[in-house]
Design goal:
CATH topology of the largest domain: inorganic pyrophosphatase (n-terminal core)
Order of helices and strands: HEHEHEHEEHHHEEEHHHEEHEEEEHHEEH
CATH class of the largest domain: Alpha Beta
Structural class: alpha/beta
Helix content: 40-55%
Shape: globular
Radius of gyration: 21 Å
Number of strands: 16
Distance between the termini: 40 Å
CATH architecture of the largest domain: Alpha-Beta Complex
Strand order of the largest sheet: 9-10-11-14-16-15
Number of domains: 2
Length: 401
């Protein structure tokens, strides 16, 4: 942590020494990303920077290229997104803008001294368990100014996505927030007086706004919810989105029960077609996670893989030229133990290898996603099976599945 604070302090000195008036905050579309985006936006506002934001479901090469070629005289911040593509960000930035990455996904090295990846994985911590993207963002803002301690509740909100619960650095942040009464323990729930909401309630609503509401201004409403609490406008949007998402989930589940899930050697896979139309592609990930607990329909020893077409319009950015498809992969509980034992490759390594040369992937041990050009969709399942076979052969393991 001392090394992180040292590097973060150097980054803050650069922010103060490079005289610009604007900052661009690029944040992920889930509860962790929205929380992180809110934390950084508030902290930058407090030091006098004009903040603009873009919420991204995935970092696409053409988006990175456009951002770093057109945003001169602007500090750029990536929140809960960016580390797996730090090499590409460095390539396109090429010394132009001070760029700071605050993330917890598996990082790649920077080749540009102006691109600083403060992901705590670079300092010996684990992004799957010890900290979230929002926690990384919060710790950075504390280096900017200790007054930002009042944003600690957002670090804990984003941390609820960690499967193992609040532990590691997240636990330290929670203890500090409780000591300072930023978070209260109320009826066995973590409650935030500032916005009159429980942490769990805030997390759930951000998940809806970010995924189902991506194309309806949901992420920006999420930022407002984080900082100001709920109002009738936000409540109405959430109710509508949740209803639509539940209906889509039921329709998709019914379709899989009636038609079955396609099978390969190591995967069970499906395409949502237009069932989640109008919603963000994050919905495929949440549905795959939900599906992993449906024991009657899924094989617990095969990876769950879902495909969804990605609209060409990115809110706040514009239209991308290529046609993409998003792939989400999840490991059911029994498969997770095999991953932990080294018998099966991790979800993120599977997708990274399967899409090599055709797209970009990021994620964690049990859950990952990728964006590829639509024309390569059919290759992915074959490549996944091939890679797992290769993995087994190298380790000389037998009867894994």
């Amino acid at each position: 942590m001392e090394e992180f604070i040292k590097k973060a302090t150097e980054a803050v000195k650069l922010i103060n020494s490079i005289k610009v008036e604007n900052a661009l905050v690029i944040y992920h579309d889930d509860a962790d990303g929205i929380s992180a985006g809110a934390i950084i936006s508030m902290a930058l506002n407090r030091i006098g920077l004009n903040v603009k934001r873009i919420c991204l479901e995935k970092l696409l090469p053409e988006v990175i290229r456009e951002i770093h070629s057109s945003k001169k005289g602007t500090h750029i911040f990536y929140c809960d997104i960016g580390s797996p593509h730090c090499d590409m960000i460095s390539q396109y930035n090429n010394g132009r803008n001070l760029t700071i990455i605050l993330d917890h996904h598996d990082p790649r090295p920077s080749s540009d001294p102006m691109v600083l990846d403060l992901n705590l994985e670079n300092f010996g911590f684990k992004g799957e368990s010890d900290f979230s993207g929002s926690t990384c963002s919060f710790l950075f803002t504390k280096v900017i100014s200790n007054e930002n301690i009042d944003l600690s509740y957002l670090a804990i909100t984003g941390s609820l996505e960690i499967p193992e619960g609040i532990r590691g650095i997240n636990s330290d942040v929670l203890s500090e927030a409780l000591r300072n009464k930023i978070i209260l323990q109320k009826n066995e729930k973590l409650y935030v007086p500032k916005i009159n909401m429980s942490i769990n309630d805030l997390f759930s609503k951000l998940q809806i706004l970010g995924s189902a509401g991506y194309y309806r201004g949901g992420p920006e409403l999420g930022i407002k919810l984080c900082l100001n609490g709920e109002n009738e406008e936000i409540s109405k949007v959430i109710r509508d989105l949740e209803s639509k998402r539940k209906n889509a989930n039921k329709k998709m589940l019914s379709k899989l029960y009636s038609e079955g899930i396609k099978q390969s050697k190591y995967t069970q896979w499906f395409d949502v077609e237009d069932i989640f139309s109008g919603m963000g592609t994050k919905t495929i990930g949440t549905f795959c996670s939900y599906l992993s607990y449906q024991k009657k329909i899924v094989n617990p020893n095969k990876f769950i893989v879902g495909f969804i077409d990605m609209p060409s319009e990115i809110p706040g950015f514009g239209e991308v030229k290529e046609k993409y498809v998003k792939i989400s992969i999840r490991a059911p509980e029994p498969l997770r133990r095999k991953i932990d034992d080294g018998l099966v490759p991790s979800a993120v390594s599977i997708l990274s290898v399967a899409i090599n040369g055709h797209g970009i992937a990021d994620g964690h041990t049990y859950a990952a996603s990728a964006i590829v050009l639509s024309e390569h969709r059919d290759e992915i399942i074959r490549r996944i099976d091939y890679y797992i076979d290769e993995y087994k052969d190298k380790r000389k393991t037998k009867n894994i599945f």
